[in-house]
Specification:
Helix 8 packs across helix 14 and helix 11 crosses helix 14. Helix 17 links the parallel strand 10 and strand 11. The strands form 3 sheets. The protein has a 6-stranded mixed beta sheet with strand order 8-9-10-11-13-12, with helices on both faces. The chain has a 5-stranded parallel beta sheet with strand order 2-3-4-1-5, with helices on one face. It has 17 helices and 13 strands. The protein is of the alpha/beta class.
Length: 408
């Protein structure tokens, strides 16, 4: 199996926190990770068991009180969010570290019924889909090197065919084990159907359920573009508010993320609209019917998907850093852009631009140079990731770096 570097974070949290909530999309490996972490001192219960769900919904406080006197691993807790309030009460009565290990495939923490209930009592840990480093069995180093001001290096050069395969396959564990593109895409199609039929119903009453598959399809097409809820709603026959609420449900299911715009009080001509990124390019390709052959024939689509691919990889690596970082995109009124801006806790800014091709021109660095000027003293380094052979300097603190450096 693949190593999961998030296991360390869960173990550290269990050592000093009464409840740890392992959050992530369905089928990212939460249950597998939990079973690897627990032993005979734990009682494992899953709300995928309909009998357990019925008992817990009827009397959540009684359900928690009547659990065995062991440490409790409770899987898919978002199906009965009322139990979180009962867990709060149990922790207040007996506060010991590592008493509860919870998992959820929807972000139950944003539900009104549990809002602020477990503050100070629980730590949330996000388990994303597999990173390229986990798939390759290597320790992540790209982001650490970047934040130290070192130019990342690559082991593999000219990886276009491999990269297209990775974009189409995605990073969920199950598709990685399948032998053909057709079977990979069949898995993602079934996965999307299950989300609409089951998980969305756990989160909210949806008046226009038929709109959700179409919204998921639109997110796949528009991944990497600015969020425009009016446009989304118009395509779906919904008003802006309803489209925003439905989009937020996809965020709760960890299927899409908003990437906020980087801005500065000194520059008024910066766009402040966030971008949207689907969290897995394999699902995006399946929903769009995008095969390796089609992707190679459509460079613009490959470039857009590659931007989401790189963003997701950097987000995963960031979760394993000791110090927090934030992510943004840069765009100004002239439509000059930088795909990803990483900002350190001290305010230093690192810009990452993504290019699917192997040929470089000075124009490829226009966004990085503009951002360097706008960020001023906060600018630390700009990196253009491309499918090339060499790491090359292109001016003051600007470098072209082979794409393989991401997991090198």
């Amino acid at each position: 199996m693949f190593p999961r570097y998030t296991a360390r974070l869960v173990g550290e949290a269990l050592a000093d926190t009464p409840a740890v909530f392992l959050l992530g999309a369905r089928q990212v490996g939460k249950t597998t990770l939990v079973r690897d972490l627990i032993d005979e001192s734990w009682e494992y219960i899953t709300f995928d068991d309909s009998a357990q769900v019925e008992v817990a919904r009827a009397d959540p406080v009684g359900f928690i009180r009547n659990l065995p006197p062991k440490r409790i691993a409770l899987d898919e807790v978002q199906r009965v969010p009322e139990t979180l309030l009962a867990i709060k009460q149990a922790i207040d009565e007996r506060r010991t570290p590592g008493r509860f290990l919870l998992t959820g495939s929807a972000n139950a923490l944003v539900l009104p019924i549990v809002s602020d209930a477990l503050v100070g009592r629980m730590e949330a840990v996000r388990l994303a889909t597999l990173s390229e480093c986990e798939i390759a069995g290597r320790k992540p180093s790209f982001l650490r090197k970047l934040l130290r001001g070192e130019t990342p290096a690559a082991r593999e050069l000219r990886i276009r065919n491999h990269l297209v395969h990775r974009v189409v396959t995605g990073c969920f564990p199950e598709p990685l084990l399948r032998g053909s593109e057709r079977r990979i895409q069949a898995w993602y199609q079934q996965y999307a159907n299950t989300l609409v039929q089951r998980d969305l119903d756990d989160l909210a009453r949806i008046e226009h359920l038929e709109a959700m598959p179409r919204l998921l399809q639109l997110v796949a097409v528009l991944s990497g573009q600015l969020v425009n809820l009016t446009e989304l709603g118009g395509r779906l026959g919904l008003n802006r508010l309803t489209a925003g609420r439905y989009f937020a449900l996809l965020e709760q299911l960890f299927l899409v993320e908003r990437l906020p715009a980087w801005h500065s009080n000194e520059f008024k001509r910066l766009v402040k609209t966030p971008k949207m990124h689907a969290v897995d390019t394999g699902m995006t390709c399946a929903l769009r019917g995008m095969t390796r052959r089609r992707l190679l024939a459509r460079p613009a689509d490959l470039g857009a998907l590659l931007e989401s691919f790189v963003y997701n990889e950097l987000r995963k690596q960031a979760r394993w850093l000791e110090d927090p970082v934030t992510f943004h995109h840069y765009r100004d009124k002239d439509k000059v852009e930088v795909d990803i801006v990483v900002e350190s806790a001290s305010g230093g800014c690192f810009a990452v631009e993504v290019k699917a091709g192997a040929t470089l021109t000075s124009r490829d660095f226009l966004g990085l140079k503009r951002f360097r000027r706008v960020a001023g003293k906060r600018f630390r380094m700009g990196v253009l990731l491309y499918d090339g052979d060499h790491t090359t300097a292109f001016g003051d603190r600007l470098f072209a770096v082979p794409m393989g450096a991401l997991w090198g």
